[in-house]
């Protein structure tokens, strides 16, 4: 009864009505180029802004859309209208309001009636929201579904789907190829401050470890991997560089021929601080990509964070070496001094920092001659140098060049990628768009045969 009275009081507030009415200003309809044709597969990722987080009045931050069922129903029916119009083969949603049965049933029913198989996953510790992944049954047969709980500071989670292509997509493949894909949906921690960079990087590391373990457990090789979600970080960040070092490409940037340095060209999110940036990605790793060992890429990414911290403190190369070796009078860095330095830059020594084994892995990576100390050359090459983030080249070849030691596999080529609203593609956030605080990203892929190195 108290809740009902409170809602009536809010309904009588003219400022609330004005704020709510602005939430449903019409915006452009989806463009037809995102509706995949024969032999094409489309994939959509969208943070739909859970009603429990959607603020309705800047003057009253406690006023949330979840308190007005008619408004969150209308907004989310509109979202579903758009998703079903595009009819992507893969739909990955973040901030899915798993804590509300009416909300969940609305999505599951409409997507189910449209022929989708759906999988939902709540964040840990009853946060209220989570993930929803949906795949069209006429495009894929779901072979397996796994869940990953990070069990860390942000209560974040991830979903892994192992799917097999069905007709008509399988008809474009020659022979008896394994026509399977791994799909991941996730929502990383928001970087409230710089100390959480290591947490977000660790979450991605856990995802890739999870995928690698699943492939090894099921003896899967030569398979495309698609990572979708809200990564809560831009192309300038360590997560982006880490994924690039693992052979993943940002499909939106590929479609628009953007380089790794074109972070300003597009945006996909306006956060609660009013900042706009591109944080929503659909990553693709084809089986012909040469990938560094995962632990090597991880260590290089952590060294990148360390290097950035030292440079933020205005340290030059010699200063950084002196800082890392601490009170040691010799011209080398000891393991204990290294750990003390990591503690001082806030990478270890707290619950969300690096663990013992991860710190040990860093030391082993840096100590290339395994003599128990780091000399200046090891520090320069393994910690201070930026070469660790370089992207490796693809391993491709023709049938004639690749008969020995290679294998034909299914892969994907990026045909198109579109953000809605379209202003986001020009780095602008439109004031009349309030369907979410994220843009919707859809990519169209074409299935192809490609040659890749055989794995032992």
Spell out the blueprint of helices and strands:
Elements: H1 2-11, H2 14-21, E1 40-47, H3 69-86, E2 90-96, H4 101-113, E3 116-122, E4 130-136, E5 140-149, E6 157-165, E7 180-187, H5 197-217, E8 225-230, H6 238-245, E9 249-250, H7 251-255, E10 269-270, E11 276-277, E12 280-285, H8 294-312, H9 317-325, E13 333-334, H10 335-344, H11 356-366, E14 373-374, H12 376-384, E15 406-420, E16 440-453
Parallel strand pairs: 1-2, 7-8
Antiparallel strand pairs: 1-16, 2-4, 3-4, 5-6, 6-7, 8-12, 9-12, 10-11, 13-14, 15-16
Helix pairs in contact: 3-4, 5-6, 5-8, 6-8, 8-11
Provide an overview of this structure.
The chain is built from twelve helices and 16 strands. With 456 residues, the chain is of the alpha+beta class. It has a six-stranded mixed sheet with strand order 3-4-2-1-16-15. A six-stranded mixed sheet has the order 5-6-7-8-12-9. Strands 10-11 form a two-stranded antiparallel sheet. β1 (40-47), α3 (69-86) and β2 form a beta-alpha-beta unit. 39% of the residues are buried.
Work out the radius of gyration: 24 Å
Tell me the strand order in the biggest sheet.
Answer: 3-4-2-1-16-15
Count, helices = 12
Q: Structural class, judged by helices and strands? A: alpha+beta
Helix content: 25-40%
Major sheet attributes: 6 strands, mixed
Q: What is the CA-CA span between the terminal residues?
A: 66 Å
Shape: globular
Number of DSSP-assigned strands: 16
Low-confidence stretches: 1-28, 388-404
Name the average pLDDT.
Answer: 86
Written as H for each helix and E for each strand, in order along the chain, the element string is HHEHEHEEEEEHEHEHEEEHHEHHEHEE
Query: What fraction of residues sit in β-strands?
Result: 15-25%
